[in-house]
Design a protein that fits this description.
Layout (H helix, E strand, L loop, with lengths): L4 E2 L6 H9 L5 E7 L3 H12 L4 E5 L10 E4 L1 H9 L3 H6 L2 E10 L2 E16 H15 L3 E3 L1 E8 L4 E7 L17 E11 L6 H5 L4 E16 L7 E7 L2 E8 L3 E8 L9 H11 L10 E14 L3 E2 L2 E3 L5 E2 L6 H21 L6 H18 L5 E3 L7 H11 L4 H10 L2 E3 L1
The structure holds flavin-adenine dinucleotide.
Length: about 425
């Protein structure tokens, strides 16, 4: 085994055979491009459905501590189907309501019908990684998808071995460029916001009303934990406070300034006192602080033929409602179900296109594209100004989002 393939410890059946071989297979039923959370989840669902799966990622397994995320109730149900939800709940913090504040005043509390889970994204990735190992699915790191031929009965993906970094200093030879071709009945491009799969299909990622920038911090908080997600709007700028497990908290602030802004204690104190005075954190060392752009985009279509997109490859939005990750996982589950149905002769290829159109529509609603916002009788006075900002910031989607919005006096058509 070379160090770019993560080999499963054990396993049976075709994926286990592929795992033991550890070479990138020449043909599979499903090739997943990208081993971020959405790609790992896609591969696991597919393996559990009995599909032969290949997974490639141009990078190496992530080991950094990473940032926290929110797993929606719908996501927890999907993870429960894979027996992963209980383990994740043990390392996360369940939140049962959302408190909305506007310009320093608490305006509403939204009780969630099922709780959401605040958990480090890394824990989700580890859980998926371990489960894939148990299924015998090898993950081929340092393998980059370069070109794709999207044929009538299969796709062919050119895969290039990426030289390990840092390069071997003892060698004066340039690293070999090693390419192979993988034939796949289907490809899922879960290769993130700069998706090369999307580019290979010639699909435009349409930019939506500009880039949003956030200052994000994680730190200790020794006050008694509350199971409440605080969403705060200061004018149009959204912020959130998410209690995490083990006495920690994550604070995110949308800012107008650029990436060069520091994410240090002085800046945190300033942002908290101007936006979240109610949540003033005790003076503690910040253990994660960053300023990040979210270049909000939506792919014009979510794939075609044999090649489909999921996760950040298809859409990027602000981090507040964790929508891109959560809807990405729901897309992956829906795609895999339809791919398995098709592979087992139970459904037509058109089902995938139909599903992708439905997902596109869900995203348009979420991002306020081609959507009519209607105010229901009795809607509070703050709703008209904030409805568009609020919708993607809630940790809900699908029918659960519609229900919650109606309880706040908003209907989307
Ligand atoms: C600082 C920060 C804070 C964030 N906070 C939040 C948050 O609070 N809530 C939230 O929901 N989201 C947040 N996000 C975004 C969240 O991380 C993404 O939505 C999530 O990681 C998307 O998962 P993904 O699997 O679609 O893509 P990614 O995690 O981007 O994974 C894509 C993978 O594809 C691989 N790849 C790319 N191109 C190729 C290729 N050609 N061939 C092979 N492999 C390829 C990459 O190496 C990568 O591993 C944050 C992001 C950052 C950076």
């Amino acid at each position: 085994m070379d160090d770019s393939s993560v080999m499963p410890a054990s396993g049976d059946g075709s994926n286990a055979e592929r795992g033991r071989a550890s070479e990138l297979p020449a043909s599979v039923e499903l090739l997943v491009v990208g081993a971020g959370p959405v790609g790992l989840f896609t591969a696991l669902r597919a393996a559990r459905q009995g599909l032969s799966v290949g997974v490639i990622d141009e990078g190496l397994p992530r080991e950094e501590r990473g940032h926290a995320t929110l797993l929606h109730a719908r996501t927890l149900r999907l993870l429960a189907e894979l027996d992963l939800a209980d383990g994740l709940k043990r390392c996360g913090q369940l939140l049962s309501s959302v408190s909305l504040s506007l310009d320093g005043k608490q305006t509403s509390t939204l009780a969630l019908t099922e709780p959401v889970l605040a958990v480090p994204q890394r824990e989700l990735e580890f859980a998926l990684h371990d489960a894939l190992s148990r299924e015998g699915v090898a993950l081929h790191y340092l393998h980059r998808a370069t070109t794709i031929r999207n044929g009538g009965d299969r796709a062919e993906v050119s895969v290039m071995r990426v030289p390990a970094w840092p390069p071997d200093a003892s060698s004066d030879q340039p690293p070999d460029v090693d390419c192979s071709l993988v034939a796949a009945e289907f490809v899922v491009g879960a290769d993130g916001h700069a998706s090369q799969v999307r580019a290979a299909l010639g699909i435009e990622a349409v930019r939506l009303e500009g880039i949003e920038t956030y200052s994000i911090f994680e730190l200790e908080d020794d006050r008694p934990p509350r199971d409440v997600l605080d969403l705060v709007f200061h004018g149009e700028l959204g912020s959130s406070r998410i209690p995490l497990a083990n006495g920690r908290v994550r604070l995110s602030f949308q800012i107008l300034s650029g990436l060069s802004e520091p994410a240090d204690g002085a800046r945190l104190a300033e942002l908290v006192s101007s936006r979240m005075a109610f949540a003033a954190p005790p003076p503690r060392a910040i253990d994660f602080g960053t300023v990040t752009h979210f270049d909000r985009r939506l792919a014009r279509v979510f794939g075609r033929g044999r090649v489909w997109l999921a996760g950040d490859a298809a859409h990027v939005t602000s981090p507040l409602g964790a929508q891109s990750l959560n809807l990405g996982l729901a897309e992956a589950a829906g795609l895999v179900q339809r791919i398995a149905d098709r592979a087992q002769g139970r459904a037509r290829l058109d089902n995938l296109a139909l599903f992708a159109q439905q997902q596109q529509r869900e995203w348009q609603k979420l991002l306020g594209v081609n959507v009519l916002f209607s105010l229901l009788p009795g809607a509070p006075g703050w709703v008209p100004n904030l409805a568009r900002r609020l919708v993607p910031a809630l940790p809900l989607s699908g029918a659960e989002l519609d229900r919650a919005l109606r309880s706040l006096g908003i209907a989307l058509y």
